[in-house]
Structure formats: structure tokens, C-alpha cells
Write a structure and sequence with these properties.
Elements lengths: L31 E13 L4 E12 L6 E6 L3 E8 L5 E3 L2 E3 L8 E6 L6 E7 L7 E4 L11 E4 L19 E9 L5 E4 L12 E11 L5 E4 L2 E6 L2 E5 L1 H10 L3 H12 L8 E4 L8 E2 L4 E4 L12 H8 L7 E3 L5 H20 L1 H19 L24 H18 L1 H14 L3 E3 L1 H13 L8 H9 L13 H14 L15 H9 L7 H11 L7 H14 L5 H10 L3 H11 L3 H14 L5 H14 L5
Helix pairs in contact: 2-3, 2-4, 3-4, 4-5, 4-6, 5-6, 5-11, 6-7, 7-8, 11-13, 13-14, 13-15, 14-16, 15-17
Bound molecules: zinc ion.
Zinc ion binds next to helix 4.
Amino acid sequence: MRLLSLFAVAASTLPLTAMAAEPYSYAQPDQVRVTHLDLDLTIDFPQRELSGQATLKLDWKNPKAPSLVLDTRDLKIASIESVSADGKTAPLNYALAPRDKALGSKLTIATPTHPTRVRIVYATSPDAAGLQWLTPAQTAGKKLPFMFSQSESINARSWVPIQDSPAIRITYDAHIKATSDVRVVMSALNDAQHPLDGDYTFDQPHPIPSYLLAIAAGDIAAEATGPRSAVYAEPSMVHKAAHEFEDTEKMIATAERLYGPYRWGRYDLIVLPPSFPFGGMENANMTFATPTIVVGDKSLASVISHELAHSWSGNLVTNATWRDGWLNEGFTTYVQGRITEAVYGKSLADEEALLSARALEKSIGSMPANAQKLTPDLRGVDADDALSDVAYDKGSWFLRTLEQRFGRADFDAYLRSYFDHFAFQSITTEQMLAYMKPNLIDKYPGKMRWAEVQDWVYGSGIPKDAPLPDSPRFDAIDTERAAFLADKLTADKLDAKGWNTQEWMYFLDRLPDVTALAKIKALDDAWHLTGTPNAEIGMRWYVHAIVAGDKDVWPAAAEHMTRIGRLYLTLPLYKAFAKTPEGLAYAKQVYAKAMAGYHPLTQQAVEGILAKASPAKK
Ligand SMILES: [Zn+2]
């Protein structure tokens, strides 16, 4: 996933007792493991409901285990039965615990006979945290409703009763019914030629963690981008998106050359409506992506490099707990850079690495020591906040450091062997280290001390000698920015005509947090940043302008916040507005109009910002 982070240290609602190996699941995999899921669901748009049944195949680890414990959130359970090998069924007793705000409701099913399968008849809630239901008016085409899931980190449980822990892998198949005007896709093998008949079957033959369970349905068209890839999107978007992502096959071939075969068959991607709260989500076989990366010049295609990279780091070799999330996101951000370098050139890959490193340098000092670690203690941290920039940017920085020390050829060979060795397994940081020591660190003595590895993995902050890539273009921008701020260069004389998206991002990222209003006005007059269709540039620009007190940008900022539900691109504007009482009042008005189009996760995050900034009620 590519999000951006809000390491909410204070978001604690988690009871200490829930903190076993996996802090966010009630599952007891040492007693029994679900190995296969068979879903049979109907999509009901008017009711905003998925209903039907989930049949779970079980592998009993303890033959005397009294129960099967599952994770659920806001599910309505109608009945539960055992299914024996010959198909005979018998009702089972169960208890659904009161809802825990952080974890949902623990479902305990009494299993005196230790059946091979258990079937749960259920329906989702219209407010299911892992599903968003859009009215036709909230789509580009305005004709049909749209729905999509976002299961990572712990919201699969809001649409499937499951052991919702990344340590537990399942294969699945699904039979999904819908009205015949919508197309249904899932995180499995999809067929772009499937007729619109309202009756779909899916098969995911590889064992995946539950957070990769995904479904979407709506007015969805498809266009091929290669022999094993296609783009799905609303009809008005699909051709534009297929053009933006026409390098997909090149990216797959690059990753295969570096890290071994793509093992999943097809790699498709779906561009969702603008309310999708993330940049991209690496659902198995089908990446879910934000439309904000379809900008016409492929400049934000590295989100696709990132999600594709997860086909190795994350989906193939998976973090066993969310505390090990850097094994997914740090490795993936590194691999993303390698794909970007091969397909779009070293200059762009270096710029992206520098952007993330500089942003981390700026933010890490103000984080609590625990949050600065690749392996943070997650007690008291909400699951939605478990993955921070540290996992992505410090994790990838560590891997770039390893590459530099050991040399690209040996490090590439090592990484490929790592993916092969742990393929289709969920592993902890300690399992990764136990493999790294003999196969990299000790194999090439004198390149890196074990204590340095430990410092990267378990220490706070960024090690002093962490290497940064060179970027002459960024150096030139630093010089221009300094001259502009020192009144030695006027805004119109900045050499910005040829700046790409990343170069504008870098220029804006390193302006002072509070830039003088006159400088903001001069930049806007010269470069017309207000109203930019590029949301990465827009997000940075509006934050500077709002903080500088430029009220002229407010309507355009409001339009940006209303149009885009991607957390990373929208929350910074709410935070900037919330710094003054007048701005806060305006942000509340914007939210009142925008909220109906926001994903539940975005609503929750914005409401948190607005509440925190508002004076406490007596
Ligand atoms: Zn990711």
C-alpha cells in the first residue's frame, strides 16, 4: 500500500490483553488454522450490503481445541454450522462478543467435533469499515453505483468472518452475484471478457493473507496493457488510464529479471473513483489505485511500480505481524525504486529516493523514539496507524545502504534468494535477519558489521552514515530556492519551465514551513499553481498558501479537498486550515459538503483533525 502516514501515537484504545504475537487479531492459529475460504455472496447496492455465506476449511493444530475464534466487525451473523467431509451439516453454538472499537467483535464458535469445515451465514453492515458504497452521483459516469473494499490492515473482518492476521494464509474461491449492469472484480484471476451477466466466479489458488482479500463492482470497463495485464476503470477513465500505465508489462519484465518470475499469472489494475483513500493497494492479481496518479505524463507511475513490487515483497513474502510491516513496505519501496530506474531512468529514481529521505529527515526528529524504529512496539497504536513513513522510507533507505555496501550484483542475488526462500510465507523481522546473517552479512565479510544491521532494524533515528543519492537537478533547485528566498531571484526568473512533478514537489517541500505571503503571491503569479490538476503539487502548494494566510486560494483548496479522498493528499490541507480559528471554521464547512463522498477511513481521519483543533466543550 502507498499511504502516508499519520503515526498517531495517542490513538490508543487497545487493551493490553489483546497484545499477543499479533496485536490486532483474536485468532488462535496455534489451535486451528483456516486454510481455504469459499465465499458465496450477493451484492445489494440499495441496502449497501453483501450477504451470503463463508465456508472455512480448517486445519486443527490442537485436536482438543474447544473452539474456533474468528475476527469480525459489524457483521450480522444469521447461523453457523459444521460441514463434514460427506457434506452433512449440523448447527454450531457461537458467541459474538461486544464490539471492541479497535478490533471489532470476537466470534467464538464451539467446535466439539472439530469439523473439517465451518459455514457462516451472514451479512455486512451498511457502515462496514472495509467497504465503500458510492451512489451513481459519486461516480464519473453518474449512471450506476460503485462499491469497493479496502481490507488492509484489519478490515477484511468487516466483510468476511476470518482469522484476520497476516500470519495466516488462505486460498479462496468466490461466487458473487450482482445485478447484470455492473461488473465485479476480485483479488484473484479476473477475466476482462466475462459477460455482464451478474454471475461471477473467482479463484485465488495461491495462499494469501486476509488483508489481500478484495472486491469491487460498478460500471467497469477494461483495456489490455500487455499480454498479462489490463486496466479496469469506469468507461470514461479507462483509455486514459491504459495510456498512463502502458509500461506495465515493461515493469513486470524488469521485476522478473531482478527477482524471479511473477508467480501470480495476471497482473491487472483497477482505477477507482477519487474517494479511494490510498495511492494504491496491492490486492493479489489486481492492484486498486487512486485516479490521482493518472496525470497524463506517467510522472506518478511509480505508485504502480510500488504496487507491482508488492507481488514479491508483501504478497509473496509477507510480514507476519504489522510490527514487521517494514518487511512489506520498506522492501517494496526499494524494489519500486529499482523498477522506476529501469523503466524511467536513474535520474527519476534518485529524485524519488531523495524526496522520501529528505522528508523523513525532516519528520523523524519530532516522532517519539518508539515510532522512529523499523520495529515499533505497537501496543496502544491503532492498526490504521501501524504503518508509518518510517516503515517505507527508513526501510528502503536501509536496503539502499545494503546495496551500496555489498554491491548491486551480490545484493540483487541475495534479494532474489530471499524471495525464493520465503515464497508464500509470512515471516517476522527475526526470521528475515536469521536468513540475512549467513547469506549476506557473513558471506561477504567486512562489508557491514552486524551491530550496524541491528542499529538500522532496532534503533531510533537514521544512522549517521546513511548514504544519499546524488541529484544534480535537485542541487540546482536548492540553489534557485535559496536565491528566491533571499530576494536575489524573482519568482518569474526561476528556471522552473522544465521541472517535472518530482522537482516541483522538492522545491515546495523545502520552502520554509511558514513562507512569507508576498513570496507565495509571487510564485502563484509566475507559475499559476492554484488550480493545478496535479494533486501532488496541489497538496504541497495549498498547504503553503493556507499557512501563509493567502485566502485567495481557499476556494481552489476546497475544490481539491472535495474532489480527492486520498488521505495523503487531503489531510494536510485540513491540518493547515485547522491552525487558525477562521481556517478551522472554513474547513468544517468544506467537510460538511465533502464528507458524503469520502471513504469511512477518510471521514474518521478528518473528523479526528477537526475535533483535535476545536476548543473543548465545557
Ligand atoms: Zn506498499
